[in-house]
Structure formats: C-alpha cells, structure tokens
Fold this sequence. Notes:
Layout: H1 3-10, H2 14-22, E1 29-30, E2 36-37, H3 40-54, H4 59-67, H5 72-103, H6 113-119, H7 135-141, H8 151-177, H9 181-186, H10 190-214, H11 219-223, E3 226-229, H12 238-252, H13 260-273, H14 279-282, E4 287-290, H15 297-319, H16 329-343, E5 366-368, E6 371-376, E7 379-384, E8 387-388, E9 392-396, E10 399-409, H17 419-429, H18 442-453, E11 459-463, E12 466-475, E13 477-479, E14 486-488, E15 495-504
Antiparallel strand pairs: 1-2, 3-4, 5-6, 6-7, 8-10, 9-10, 10-15, 11-12, 12-15, 13-14
Helix pairs in contact: 8-10, 8-15, 10-12, 16-17, 17-18
Amino acid sequence: MTIKELENRTGMTRANIRFYEGEGLLSPKRLDNGYRDYSEEDARTLEKIKLLRQIGVDIDTIRKVQNGTLALEQALFSQHNKLEGDKAMLERAVEVCRELELSGVEYDALDPAPYLRQLEAPSRPVLPNPPPPTPKEEAEQDDTPQACYHPWQRWLARMLDMTLYDTVFNVLWLVLLHDQSLIRLQMGSAVAQWVLALVLLAFTLAVEPLWLHFWGWTPGKWLFGLKLRNKDGEKLSLAQAWARSKALAWEGYGWNLPGYSLYRFWKCRQDALDGWNGSWNGEAGCRYTKEGRRFSGWIFVGVNVLCSAALFAGIRYSSLPPCRGDLTVAEFAQNYNYFQKQLSQDAVKGPWMEDDGRWAGPTDEYQQGGTTRVKVDGVWVAVEDPVWDEPEFTVEDGRVTSVTIRVTGGCIDALPFSNQEMLAVLAMSGATGDWSMLHSDTEGWLTAANEVLGQFGDGETQARGLRVVKQEELSGYQETEIVWLLTPVVGEEQHYERVVTISLMD
Length: 506
C-alpha cells in the first residue's frame, strides 16, 4: 500500500510515519522506482506503536520490545508504575488547588510550606509482584551494551570512512610536504606498515569525534543513512565523542597491536552475532537510528574510485620538481636536493647541494682511507681520490640556462657517469616547462640522458627541452666484461676527466 493508504488505515500523519522509519521501527520494502511499498505487517506495526505511544511508552522502550531485548509485560509494568505515580501526583495537585481555592487566601499572605510538603510526598506507589526481568534485560541492568543494529552497514561505513581518512592523510602529506616517503613506507617492512597504520588510526579517531559532535554522522554513516545519538536522542558532546573514540581504539582495534587487534576484531564479530554493540556505543548509551535513505552500491564504488584518483593525483603532484619555470641557482639546488631525497636508495646516492650551488657533502657514498667506494647496480667499485669541481652555472637575467659538472683524478676503476650528473639533469628539467600533473615522466629523462652518460667517450643527446653533452678524456684503462666499467692497465699511468654540461635548448 502507499503512504497515503497507510495514513488512512492508521490515522497517523505522513510525518509520524517517516519519523518511525527514521528511528528504525519500520522498514518498508522499496519498489524498483524507489517508492515505498507498505505491507499489512507494516500497518500492524504502526498500530502497535501508536497504541504504546498513546499510553506513554517511549521510543527506546518500544525498540527494545521490538527486537526482543525487553519483554512487553515488563515494559507495561514499568509504564503502569509510572502512570500510577503521575496519577497520584495529579490527584494531590487537585486537592491542593481545591484547598487553596476554598481558603480564600491572598497572594501576599500565602504560606506555601504546608502545601509544598503535601505535594512533595512520595508520588509513585509500589505495585506488588512485578514480573521477573528477562535474561537480556538483566544484562542491560548490568550495563551490557544495547542491541547491535545494522552491523554490516556499519562495517561498510567504517571501511569507507577509513578509506577517506587514509586518502586525505596521504594527499595532504604528498601535497603539503611534497614528499613520497610515506608512500614508500607503506610498501616497506611490517614494522613500518604497523607504525603507519597506527598513525592513520590516531588521525581517524581524532577527526571522527568532530563529525559526530557537529553533524551526528561520519561520511560513511551518512551514505548508509545511519545516525549516532546519545541516550537523550541528541548529537554526542565532544567529551562523549572523544571518550567513544578512545574506547573504540582499544576495544575495537586494539591499537592495531599484532595479534591483539585480530582478537579484538574476532570479539567484535562475536558480539555483533550475539546482537550487542561494543562498549564504545552501548556502555556510553549511544544508539544508531536508520533513515529511509536507500544505499547505492554505485555511490560506494564511486567514492572509492574518487579516493584512488585523488591519491594518484597527489603522487603525480609530488613527482613534480618543487621549482618550475625560470630557475635561479637556489631553485636549481632545491630541485636537485628534492630528487636526491626522492630517488636515494642504498644503490643510488650522491651529494647534497647548497643554495649557492656548491656541493654540501662528500660526493660519494662513503670513503675508506684514500679510496672512495661507490655502489652501482649492487657492485662496489673502488675509485681513488676523485676530484669534483664545484658546479659551474650559466645565468642569463637571473635564469639558469646551463650547468657544468667536472670530475678528474687518477682512478683505480673508471665509471662513465655519476649519480650527481643524473640528478642535475632532473633538476634542470624543471626549467623546460614540460612538467604537468599528467606529464611527469622522471624515468623518461633518466633514460634519455643515459644514452650519453651510460657509456664511455664523448656524446650528446637532446631530451624533452634539454641538451646533454659529455666530453671525456681517459688513458691507461682497458675494457672489462662489464660495459660500464674500465680497469687500469698495469704499468701505465691512469688519467681520467669527465665534463658534463646540461643546458636548455633554444
């Protein structure tokens, strides 16, 4: 039947019917066109609600009777007791009113004390032989949490909230700090993943109380039509919301502690199957109400897709060099240090650069005696006292147009290029104007530059707005099975000099 027919059948207004649906006391079917289809059972449910409401039974009590956590007999006994007390109070009020009327006393001469004592006498008579409470009611009297409503929807809402919080946290980190280390840590060791999960949980439980206090729901709960209210039917205070989050961290997630968190998840599942909430809801008197909103799986999927897109955009943005366009020497150094931080791994290290373009530290990974050892593709190569000149910049109207990097020295082994030269290519690429959210091909520049830098001898290449020129002088070396490594010829003097210039194309 339609809602109009239901109004005529029950004598209840449309607003009242919608209210009881929102409170979760009525769950009509939905037709394909989205309209509600009320059954005879729905009409009988409303008539029962109407009857109980007209004798003063509150919504929470009706809900407990509906889900079987409170016997109807016990609910009626409690209401009978309350009505008898209210009746006695009204009868005394009538008597006092009559006595005052008959006394003819004026307001200024009125002595209220005896009349107040008459009104303040015990108002609720004790009824004999109350029915025994049900086992579930006894549990509630022992502060056992209330019945668990909509457990699967609440779980999906929680997953959606966690996805949103994780996305916001990561995107803020990527955009504000311009740093991808957090993303790399998420693919790192188990300890790193646990620490990050703990940070995300703390972030979630810090943000969620604000949602619950100001709006009464979180984004995930809103999507599922779930509202969280305190025992008075109001939105949670900040203190209640913080206390709930603290209990949720321990009782629900076990602070993501290995082993213990799995036990907490299992325990929460068992509680839900038994029809009870966690302590963060039930013991605090919090309860869920369900609005008539119909959940859409497409919206759920769409939100997750948008989160993935936002994370991808954040990663792409953080891949851009921080300085783009016309670069000063300081901005070139900032780009250089940025790529040094993003690309540095055990096998890829180089020196940092000062704001004035000078090297800020050792030019290789570590030194041992008079020999510097460099790790390339997992192979340690010994190089004796290489001399790195300070980078030379060509600046036109305050704009860096080229940088030259020179290394010389008598070497035990010779390498065709160094990490600092590759990092300089990426730093200069910020001046090409060829960077965008949709076009941030770091690997492309490295591959193009490697065509010249990855082999011995002179060479030149052009790569997306850059010209890379290498001039090399070497003597006293012989080739090895490794194409990018030369070894000294015994008895001959070794000389090695490499000059690499990276410039903007006209």
